[in-house]
Specification:
Four Helix Bundle (Hemerythrin (Met), subunit A), Arc Repressor Mutant, subunit A, 73% helix, globular
Length: 279
């Protein structure tokens, strides 16, 4: 029986003779296509409840395949998952373009599955991260998650082969993307470090200080308040609802932090239409 993930491809096994530069370029192209698709899929997901449920169902099968170390079952579920996201984007000819690139990288990813993922649970976690981003309904977060998901393969190679700088960049990228689309939830450094960045809390803290010049918690507060400022400017949502939407349960505390960062309380920022810091 023909593998469904090879439909429409001239070479269903995937070429195995691409050089590194060609593989990097194909990966970048796949990242571009899937980022575009995920962004559009996220914008449609609220009106496609059955599609959202289907994504979770496929993810369950993928997780089972990973636990059983069954590459063929994993590849089939992986194909169906990404294909479903591309189709959910509802863009003409997008799936055809994506499928050509997908099939071109099949052998590369088979090698990666066998060689660079000793802990296969990471694969399930990475796919769950992508699906959660799409289901969040935030196009920007979904696009960032898709880029991270596709490009992480090279970071796994770098980690395995000892390229510390590339591995650190990937860990930080994953953590920052996670904060961006889950800022409305309770977020703990330890969980993000272990389950998202796949590093220790201490190391993730050092990465945030090194690359952003601030702590993990300070960075999270910063993006929450920046998102709140944007919502105050672009919506008529009540301030209390905005504070909850960006992760603050205490509206008074939100007001204190907002004023400390922008120099004015949220109500004055809204009246000034966000025009700088109207001190």
């Amino acid at each position: 029986m023909r593998d469904k993930s090879c439909q429409g491809a001239e070479d269903c096994s995937g070429r195995s003779d691409w050089n590194d530069a060609e593989l990097h370029n194909l990966t970048a192209l796949r990242s571009l296509i899937e980022g575009f698709a995920s962004s559009h899929a996220a914008s449609h997901i609220a009106h496609r409840a059955e599609k959202a449920g289907a994504l979770r169902s496929i993810l369950t099968r993928l997780d089972e395949a990973v636990q059983q170390n069954d590459y063929l079952a994993f590849r089939q579920a992986d194909y169906e998952l990404h294909s479903a996201i591309v189709e959910l984007a509802e863009v003409p000819l997008l799936r055809e373009a994506w499928l050509v690139v997908w099939n071109g990288l099949l052998q590369f990813h088979k090698t990666g599955f066998e060689k660079y993922y000793q802990d296969r649970r990471i694969l399930a976690s990475e796919h769950a991260f992508l699906i959660d981003a799409v289901r969040s309904g935030d196009p920007a977060a979904a696009e960032a998650a898709a880029h991270s998901h596709v490009e992480q393969h090279w970071f796994r190679i770098a980690e395995k082969e000892g390229s510390c700088a590339a591995w650190e960049s990937h860990a930080l990228q994953r953590a920052a993307a996670h904060l961006a689309f889950r800022m409305h939830r309770q977020i703990r450094l330890g969980e993000v470090a272990r389950k998202v960045a796949f590093t220790s809390p201490g190391n993730l803290t050092r990465l945030f200080h090194r690359h952003f010049g601030m702590s993990f918690q300070r960075y999270l507060q910063k993006i929450r308040l920046e998102k709140a400022a944007d919502l105050l400017r672009s919506t008529t949502l009540p301030i209390g609802r905005i504070s909850h939407r960006v992760g603050y349960q205490d509206v008074a505390r939100f007001g204190q932090h907002f004023r400390r960062m922008f120099g004015v309380p949220p109500s004055r920022w809204r009246k000034a239409d966000g025009g700088g810091s109207p001190r």
